[in-house]
């Protein structure tokens, strides 16, 4: 980087360099059949959810336990003055508690009555898929089993991994999820 660059030129240079790393040409970013979302991991499953379903991504805030709730309800956290329920997605979906570590993230999910924060094991960031990468119904079956069944209706293969599209919107509307009292 040239030290004599103006602030505007520095920003233009940042944009140029970041676009050099975008998979696909700019005209392909909104191509028909393209699906984009946020990629993350719960347990051993790689999932992705639509950008519109994720309001924000945060590190795990300080959590205050709430007595008398389901085991998957970790408690509440104060995020910029707003109290948010924090849900352990792995425990809700798989019945196994998430081991807390530094790379955990929470996704703020929109729901009627206020947002909820869901804990995910690992965040992968933006993921883009095209129709040609979509798995057929038979290959989708392992993803849409058990408690995942109502939230996954398609999956994609990208590189060495399969990614299931998880509907956080459907999750937030599920009566069992909305009823955290034990």
Poorly predicted sequence stretches spanning 5 or more consecutive residues: none
Reported for the largest beta sheet, the result is:
5 strands, mixed
Tally the beta strands. Answer: 10
**What average pLDDT do the residues reach?**
88
Distance between the termini: 58 Å
What's the arrangement of strands in the largest beta sheet?
A: 8-1-2-10-9
What is the helix fraction of residues, given as a range? 10-25%
The oligomerization state is: single chain
Radius of gyration: 19 Å
User: Structural class, from secondary structure content?
Assistant: alpha+beta
Number of helices: 5
Task: Give the DSSP E fraction (strand runs of 2 or more residues).
Answer: 35-45%
- Which H/E pattern describes the elements? HEEEEEHEEEHEEHH
What general form does the structure show? globular
Topology, element by element:
Elements: H1 7-19, E1 34-42, E2 45-50, E3 54-59, E4 73-79, E5 82-88, H2 89-94, E6 105-109, E7 116-120, E8 122-130, H3 137-140, E9 152-158, E10 161-166, H4 168-173, H5 175-178
Parallel strand pairs: 2-10, 5-7
Antiparallel strand pairs: 1-2, 1-8, 3-6, 4-5, 6-7, 9-10
Feature tags:
182 residues, alpha+beta, five-stranded mixed sheet, 5 helices, 18% helix, globular
Descriptive notes:
With 182 residues, the protein is an alpha+beta fold. Helix content is 18%, strand content 37%. It is globular and about 60 Å long. The model has no long low-confidence stretch (mean pLDDT 88).
């Amino acid at each position: 980087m040239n030290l004599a660059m103006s602030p505007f030129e520095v920003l233009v240079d940042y944009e140029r360099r970041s676009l050099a790393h975008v998979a696909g040409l700019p005209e392909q970013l909104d191509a028909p059949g393209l699906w984009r979302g946020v990629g993350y991991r719960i347990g051993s499953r790689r999932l992705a959810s639509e950008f519109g379903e994720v309001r924000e991504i945060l590190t795990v805030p300080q959590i205050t336990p709430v007595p008398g709730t389901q085991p998957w309800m970790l408690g509440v956290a104060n995020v910029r003055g707003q109290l948010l329920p924090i849900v352990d997605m792995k425990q809700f979906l798989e019945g196994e508690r998430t081991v807390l570590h530094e790379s955990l993230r929470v996704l703020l999910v929109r729901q009627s009555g206020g947002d909820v924060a869901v804990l995910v094991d690992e965040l992968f960031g933006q993921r883009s898929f095209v129709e040609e990468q979509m798995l057929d119904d038979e290959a989708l079956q392992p993803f849409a089993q058990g408690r995942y069944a109502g939230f996954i209706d398609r999956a994609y293969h990208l590189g060495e991994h399969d990614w299931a599209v998880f509907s956080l919107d459907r999750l937030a509307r599920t009566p069992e999820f909305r009823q955290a009292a034990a």
